[in-house]
Fold ABC transporter permease.
Amino acid sequence: MSTSTVTEPPEVTTGGRIATVLRLTGVDARVRMSVPWLILGAIFLVNVAIWWAVRASSDDGGQGTTGALTALFFIIGSTYLVTMTQTMPFALSLGITRRHFYAGVVVRLAGETLVHAVALTALLLLERATDGWGLRMGFFSLGFVPPLNPLLQVLCFWVPLLSIGTLFLLFGAVFRRWGQYGVWALAVAGVLAAGLAVFWVTWQSAWPAVGRFFTGTPVPVLLAVHPLVLAAVAVAVGYLVVRRARV
């Protein structure tokens, strides 16, 4: 008489669950990665046209920075808010836990923003090589950032992109936990905190010290270290919130 053994299904590890989240969020990765660049491309063409028109009607041959690049940071960050608010319910319906979903989204955020940072660095180097696209226009440069080696430049793009993305993830986690009212409450709290900070600095006449902090801190530290602390805090708070998120 033969006996048959029942084989238990292998337990899915944490790494396996996170890999599942990465595959799930990879479905719309093409849209999430391309749409910000399409918008930035349109902004770039408008700036080129304006810059050319100004230079054609003026004798000023100076170089300047448009400042339009900052829009890309928030456009990219907003795409991860969509991921948190729209993809998370479907992921939970497939048996993925909240913490594994959140961890997977953070990993994808880190990877995709790194790709954006490398692309921005390449375009910045091309901009410098062409003397501002032949117009002495600084589009991919930030006026206060001096020329850096490519590795530091990638970090100075990547960490701010990462930190802004984590803030949008935090808003998405708050939305999944408390809904629209929670998002508004968090936004109001942020405005009040900023207002109190401005009030305190003004009251203490500490604006010169604030100015010395920004001008005296090396740019790589200012853009690649301090925002990383903000990103870590946002990820930690978002994790605590998302663990009790509603489907």
Residues 11 and 17 are 10 Å apart (CA to CA). The two ends are 50 Å apart (CA to CA). The chain is about 75% helix and 0% strand. The mean pLDDT is 86.
